[in-house]
Design goal:
The strands form 3 sheets. The chain has a 5-stranded antiparallel beta sheet. It has a 4-stranded antiparallel beta sheet with strand order 1-9-10-11, with no helix packed on it. A two-stranded antiparallel sheet has the order 5-6. A hairpin with a 2-residue loop joins β9 and β10. It contains 2 helices and 11 strands. It starts with a strand and ends in an 18-residue tail after the last strand. The chain has one domain. The radius of gyration is 14 Å and the shape is globular. Helix content is 12%, strand content 40%. By secondary structure, the protein is mainly beta.
Length: 135
């Protein structure tokens, strides 16, 4: 299995930190990997992204960060290639001291030791309103 290199990354929806023609290029590389996503090279750096199980919404990490999603995906983008947005507000900044695996299992997204459950549970409540607006 291909691994991501150690480093600092933005974890969240890549549409918030990559814009314009670069976003089109990013999508082209993303669409070239497995049907639900995976690891790919963009702008000479390894990136990773997966579709969420139910598309747009708000998802939480095992570390408690909330990730808003507007492009139906969550991914890791090296901080060095981010040129727009506010990574610390639009997602979360994570660091890995060694190479790590990323994969998806029926809506559960795994980024090293961080998990994002995008399959959820019908009983889950929105962290903002307490209802089901985000599911």
């Amino acid at each position: 299995m291909k691994r991501m290199p150690a480093g600092r990354y933005y974890l969240g929806d890549p549409c918030y930190v990559i814009e314009g023609e670069r976003w089109d290029e990013f999508l082209g590389e993303f669409w070239g990997v497995k049907p639900r996503g995976g690891i790919f090279t963009f702008d000479h750096f390894e990136c990773c992204a997966f579709y969420t199980k139910y598309g747009d919404g708000t998802y939480s990490t095992t570390e408690g960060s909330l990730l808003g999603v507007d492009a139906g995906m969550i991914g890791l983008v090296p901080l060095t290639i981010i040129t727009s947005g506010h990574p610390e507000q639009d997602g979360t900044i994570v660091s890995f001291s060694a190479a790590f695996e990323c994969y998806e299992q029926d809506g559960l997204l795994i980024f090293g030791d961080i998990e994002v459950d995008t399959a959820g549970d019908d009983e889950d409540e929105c962290p903002y309103c307490g209802g089901d607006c985000c599911r």
